[in-house]
Design brief:
Elements lengths: L1 H19 L3 E7 L2 H16 L3 E7 L4 H5 L6 E5 L6 H6 L3 E5 L10 E2 L2 E4 L14 H11 L6 H10 L8 H12 L3 E7 L8 H6 L12 H10 L11 H11 L10 E7 L6 H13 L3 H8 L3 H24 L3 E2 L4 E4 L5 H8 L5 E7 L2 E7 L2 H5 L4 H6 L7 E4 L3 E7 L3 H18 L1
Parallel strand pairs: 1-2, 1-3, 3-4, 4-6, 10-11
Antiparallel strand pairs: 5-6, 7-8, 9-10, 11-12, 12-14, 13-14
Helix pairs in contact: 2-5, 2-6, 2-11, 2-12, 5-6, 6-7, 6-11, 11-12, 11-13, 12-13
């Protein structure tokens, strides 16, 4: 890993030199927690370097978005761009791509674009490195080691925290070395700093159907002689709760996490990750960047949106009707919810959610680590959208696609075949 990191540092020095030459930088980043963390790291870096900049947050680096880019500016694309580098080159765009998705061109220097992508260095961007982690590697070249906390938020948001591997592990270890984080074992419900019965009722990682209401969660805690109104469990109370939950949720060990306290006004990295996810899914991209930059009003709004979102999410989960093919579950849902619901419900088979927008159907597919170990690769499965006049891709554990809505059924059947072939090899 250190050898690969040294190779990256040579590219990072080239990026640093290019940034130092600029008076004005345009950042284009993704709307999920990894993208918003990436944008926040880059914004803090550029602020400290006295650079003028503008941030644009988008859901996809689509043709429509690329068409609106002007080659007069210097760009940094974060958590996107490697898959669209050819289109950017065709527009004579100059700048930097900091991404962790599989690149269309496996080169670091292509015309006026420098590409920092772990895949180019033989590192798996689906489980060993995130975009925010790669942005942190740039920030540390400026000695801004404190920005490691935001990178860890992105690592959590991109489901790469457990287990920690590769660049992700390096970042967490360095953050501990410089004392920018504290890590300790705790129960997930203590993360939220809200009444325990509410934390339990609206928790989705894990999702426990029998307790997914305030009344049920309140009465359950009362039955254990635990005060439902308190905001934090002691370790003894946590053990009592976990023991009781085993009868309702056999995987109760998932309730224990290694909490990470970071140098940020939202101190808990898991909480900050969920907050960024909720505002991003609500389209409040400016609020997300504001939260990353520690603006008090944005953080206050973030808390409000988080709990509004959690309540809506529980309602959507309860209303979700899974349909089954041989190797997948699928469902039709609502924009802003299908990815997270698919992630929550993915157990023995991958889950694919979709919603229809005009003449287009948009898909989010999710798996889990056990399915990945059996051979699941959702990036490959979603990429088959090209055969249906669409586009798709992502990671092995999480990917998406867009196709014409009249091809939903045949697309799902084809995806089911591909996934069946993957899992049969595992």
């Amino acid at each position: 890993m250190l050898e690969k990191l040294t190779e990256m540092e040579k590219v990072i020095e080239d990026i640093k030199e290019r940034i130092n030459e600029q008076k004005y930088v345009r950042i284009v980043t993704h709307h999920d927690p990894d993208g918003l963390s990436s944008g926040s790291i880059l914004a803090k870096l550029l602020l400290r370097e006295n650079k003028l900049f503008q941030i644009t947050v988008v859901e996809h680096l689509s043709k429509n978005v690329i068409d609106k880019l002007s080659n007069k500016y210097f760009y940094i694309f974060a958590d996107m761009g490697s898959g669209q580098i050819e289109e950017l080159l065709n527009k004579d765009i100059r700048g930097v791509i900091i991404d962790h998705h599989p690149p269309a061109i496996k080169e670091t220097h292509v015309k006026d674009i420098i590409q920092l992508n772990p895949h180019i260095f033989g590192i798996d961007g689906a489980k060993e490195a995130t975009a925010s982690g790669m942005c942190y590697l740039l920030a540390r070249a400026y000695k801004y080691y404190d920005l490691s906390g935001l990178a860890i938020v992105g690592i959590i948001g991109d489901m790469q925290y457990s287990p920690l591997l590769g660049i992700n592990k390096f970042i967490v270890n360095e953050a501990r070395e410089y004392r920018h984080i504290k890590i300790f074992e705790d129960i997930i419900y203590n993360v939220y700093n809200i009444e325990l019965y509410k934390a339990i009722a609206y928790c989705t990682k894990p999702y426990i159907p029998d307790l997914a209401s305030e009344v049920k969660a309140y009465n359950f805690l009362k039955s254990l002689n635990i005060d439902p109104e308190k905001k934090e469990l002691t370790w003894d109370e946590s053990k009592k709760l976990i023991s009781a939950l085993i009868f309702k949720y056999p995987k109760a060990d998932r309730l224990k996490i290694n909490r990470i306290i970071i140098n940020h006004k939202v101190k808990d990295a898991f909480l900050l990750s969920e907050m960024l996810n909720s505002v991003g899914r609500h389209g409040l991209f400016g609020v997300g960047i504001g939260i990353g930059l520690e603006d008090d009003k944005c953080i206050e709004r973030g808390y409000e949106i988080l709990w509004e979102y959690k309540k809506k999410l529980i309602k959507e989960i309860k209303e979700t009707k899974l349909r089954k093919l041989k190797n997948i579950y699928y469902f039709e849902g609502k924009k802003g919810f299908i990815g997270i619901i698919a992630s929550i419900l993915a157990e023995d088979k991958p889950v694919i959610g979709y919603y229809i927008e005009g003449d287009i159907a948009k898909f989010s597919a999710r798996g889990n680590k056990e399915l990945i170990e059996r051979g699941l690769d959702l990036n490959e499965a979603m990429a088959v959208a090209k055969e249906f006049d669409g586009s798709g891709g992502g990671h092995n554990i999480a990917a998406g696609a867009t196709i014409p809505k009249d091809k939903i059924e045949e697309f799902l059947k084809r995806v089911d075949e591909i996934i069946g072939g993957q899992l049969s090899k595992g």
